[in-house]
Structures
1.
Amino acid sequence: MSAAWLVTGAAGMLGQDVLARLAGAGIPAVAAGRDAVDIADSASVRAAFEEHRPAVVVNCAAWTAVDDAETDEEAALRVNGEGPAVLAEACREYGAVLLQVSTDYVFAGDAAHPYPEDAPTAPRSAYGRTKLAGERAVLDTLPDTGYVVRTAWLYGAGGGNFVRTMIRLEGVKDTLDVVDDQRGQPTWTVDLADRLVLLGLGALAGTAPAGVYHGTSAGDATWFGLTREIFRLLGADPERVRPTTSEAFVRPAPRPSFSVLGHDRWKAAGIEPVRDWRSALGEAFPGLLAAERP
């Protein structure tokens, strides 16, 4: 078997950082964008497996338009549910490990304490339902070699995201009203990519049990608190950021009010959970600023 890793969704924000992490570790990798591999098409996936014989597949491909999924759940399900099912079947046949990136949206988002990895799922949106379908396909098909890594509030230099948007808006708005009744864990794609690679290596070495892991930063914040930290890092006055409620920004898909995830499962794999979000944001910030204000 080849030692190569196959990264689907390779052109996306997370996919780019996974490929960079693999390159830094000297691990050969195949970048599979949507034009190269249609993950929901078995013939397309089989062709990729025949050509590359991957040892590990990292599925970063996803339908992430949360609101659009409410009116086109079938299309979202094709990518988020059927795609992982096709990949899982190919991994089973070819003996590969599958790392499936999932989301906090599989939970109801109304808890008072961090969701453990085995907490009951209860998605409230079409997006959450389609991502849960993908989780189940992977875990059912690959009980020994399937890994689900849930994440949330992702940001990075390689794509559009909340942090980059706030950096841009700080330069053009006198004040910003930002939601203060949704709580989660801002997570740098570089940190998540690092954990995905470590988990894949642990899977190959037999030291990381299959199943569900939570790939989010330690600590938590509201969008309001995160934005004030962004302003602080910009050298701007955090008082220009004003708190508001979710009712001020009604969206088609309901947003979880509580997206804080627990990280206990990493201990079983001998891997440290992701660091505190403030530390990560501080390290990430020069790259984010350069990407948004070149």
2.
Amino acid sequence: MKDQLNSNNKPLYRIPDLFTGLANLVSGESTRHGGVSSGPYNSLNLGGSTLDNPDNVAENNRRFFESLGIPLSQVAKSHQVHGSEILVVTQAGRFDGYDALITNVPAVQLSVTIADCTPILIFDPVKKAVAAVHAGWRGTVQQIVLKTVKLLQETYGSNPADCLAFVGTCIDACSFEVGEEVAENFQSDYKSRDEQTGKFFVDLKAANRSQLIEAGVKPENIEVSPYSTVIHNEDYFSYRKEKGLTGRLLATIGIKE
């Protein structure tokens, strides 16, 4: 991933290598650096569902999207509910109840917020369509990524073999400890068990990558973030590590006019 640094020489956001240099494609995954928020939200909190000062969140969003060359009027977001509903976006705006967004409309910048869940960004360079997915463990179990690729096919005629996909920064497999009631929803390939504690650990990145491959995306066209919200907490917000009192990251993708 390619770092875009702020004035303090910290990464403001990172661009997936897979998307770097593609004409008219705008993508990025934010870090926690470069904003105006303080305390547990220090500093680039991009989530409006926190108790942070709304003016700070608004300024953080302005800074982040300005650094990408995107006016806020072009941004499409949804209040996420950890489900598997997908919205076909035809114009920018704020929506409710969707955990994935797709569009082929230029100058509409799709965005999802995260703080441990998995962001997935998809680009079809042939049909000029994009998708942004928020996959928590529930959304992963409900196969939201697989459903999103299928909807790209149905809506825009996308061929999954043409698509490029990025599985973004989230909680890592060695940090995502869950009980049996959660683990039982995952195949054995995506979980391990600590024999001493009886607790399970789930690999959300691997599970969502497999859904992309099952949908027809070529393995060589998939990039997986090397970062973890927990292990690399100095650069990323983690809801679990920071016990719920933290900011939100943002992953975004769109096509310029």
3.
Amino acid sequence: MDAGKLPLLQSFYPWLNRELGIKRPSNNRFTYLQCSHVPSEWHPAWIEKSLERAGFETSFSPLYELGPELLEKTDTLYVPSSHDEFFLKSRSDDLLAFLARGGNLVICAEPCQPWLPFMAPFHAVSPRPFTNIKVRVRNDRFGIFADLGGDFDGWEGIFGQYARGWSDPPPGAIWLTDVGPEGDPKPADWPWQYPTTTTGRGGYVFMHNGDNMTRYPDRGPKKEALVANVCLALRRLSIGELLF
């Protein structure tokens, strides 16, 4: 599609919904899955304010409470990197049903044992030279990284810890960021729409092959806005304000 036509189409669909009186769900319930009792991981101090500014209602739930009842109460489920792969694999049917009915899933992971069928094992890039783990924006069609500054992949002064590698995306995923040598880049971040015939429109997955995104960026023009930007993009895709 001609990139010049995207803004027109993105504004057209909300207008058409209003004209036809179609009320789409706001998809603004966000659940942070608590996977580690380290205070900064269990309940990041700033995350509620950041998500509230983006229009989300935030809740927190321990990992081992994950099941159909919890998923029924959320629109976007956020999985930090410090998770139990074996437990999540035991909940794969629940998570796939959540995606099939239009729920969104944000995953921070370096999968050793992929716990959903569309996930693949993690591959680390060579740490030498160190610039290999400087993440570069490849495609920001959803506006996730545009206002974060060039050092969005740094945390508390540490360069390049945002992602150390990649996992192969499923067909139809969009490659957003590069990691590894500039001559042989790999996908550090990719979103993908879950295919479903139940509703005709499955939810979206944002796969971040790295550390918990609540740590990034800790500085820059929009400090601590990365998670909110990701979730806002998924929500806008879900309600038809953006095109995938």
4.
Amino acid sequence: MTEPGRTLHLVDPETLPLFDVLGRGAPFTRETLPAIREASAAQYAAIGQPVIEPVIERVASSGGKIDVLWYDPAPGAKDRPALLHIHGGGMILGSARAMMAGPAGMAAALGIPVASVDYRLAPETPFPGPQEDCLAGLRWLADNADRLGVDATRIGVIGESAGGGLAAATAQMARDTGGPALAAQILVYPMIDHRTGGDACPYGNRTTGEFIWTRAYNQFGWEALRGDYAVDDARKGWFSPSLADDLAGLPPTWIGTGSLDLFFDENLDYARRLVDAGVPVELHSYPGGIHAFNIVADAGIAKAFSRDMLGAIARMLKISERP
């Protein structure tokens, strides 16, 4: 059953089954978080085995070794583009091991390898730990390009929700710290502005954020990630990408968001600022789309989203032949 809501009439009706999967649950607190994580992991486990089984690589990061899951649709092939995938979960949920269907499906659909980084979660690991893990995953991919059969000049970073925010942060960190250079950033309704939903929120949209990922959830996730970071130094864009003073020099960008998603305004603002900084941007807004709308794969807007995103990746990474 769907739940009643002030903006329910605006939601694309084909995506209403999403409420049965990701309906509003218990409020996020430090006490409820373990149970919410367990329930979330069980939901993803029910999806079954990924279409491509990953190889687990151990990669050095600032807090020790992390896992990177390597999905290769054609082991032994050479000179291919590749993606670094960063999973979502509000900075506080999920894992690369639990959320294998997305990156495995991308690797199969595009015919290119995908590396999915199992970054540490907040609040146990606050900023900059998760971001450092993602950058370590990117550097591992670039450093091992020859062994993996990857063209290091055609690596893109992709993530959804919190993963989109971490992808945007990874792109900024790579730019600011000497690489690796990225050919593209694919930002799927990215979580990029820590002010959204709080007292300092610069957006006053009356129809966004009622469902799935709310303002209260968002503020809990960001506060968990922030820890004791004062958000007052040159790393502020690495923490919350919307705060970066300068977006010049970032890679060509694709952004897809739902018109009812809490992140709609911050995503459009980021796209505008990227264009102003001279970065090529492809921007899509899907009408009636709430957060994570594309999970309902048979919905028309989900099909449009997949077509647009996969087509953009193929163009941006110069994939000559798609299966």
